[in-house]
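Before going further, learn to read the protein records used in this course. A complete example follows; check for yourself that the lines match position by position.
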Amino acid sequence: MGFAHNNVLHSNHFRKDWQRRVRTWFDQPGRKLRRRNARKAKAAALGVRPLTLLRPAVRAQTVRYNRKVREGRGFTLAELKEAGVNRKEARGVGIVVDHRRRNLSEEGKKLNVERLKAYKAKLIVFPRNAKKPKKGDSTGADLEAETARTHLPLPAPYVHEEPRKITDDERSFEAFKTLRVARADARYAGVRKIRAAKKEEEEANKKK
């Protein structure tokens, strides 16, 4: 390696004991097995309860990712109220509550209310004392029904439309022109309003 021009001389350190600092991952298969056994133990400890808690379906943040639907932190108090779920009893039946979250759209609220109602319809609450069931506990044939421990799947992020022919109106529609005209109308609305008011005033003065 030659040197040219008035540059800084290299001071390369190639005598470090790098073999001692290499991060190995030989315990990966063992860790995988340990995690699997921990999941099994947790599932056995939960009895017949669902393996995961029920969380709301929310849109991801920012314009870049808001086309995606993911699980949120917890249901809002408004969603629980509309679905007829007591917020104090919700956590006891596997529903997460987030008192900070707010509903910013009717569509999102409706989606989560339907999600709660679907969960309630499938929910089986075993009484602590079979002879004295409390209010809200399942009774009769419900207790003998088959139980599934999987959580409710998230809804589709958008509804797919069936392929169809383009109509004549759609073909003749000029999207760019429409957008520019709407932008111009919004921009000059104030000026045009002032101009129209001034014109009316001048005409009123002429009549006098």
User: Anything to note?
Assistant: The mean pLDDT is 89. Residues 189-207 form the longest helix (19 residues). The first strand starts at residue 57 and ends at 59.
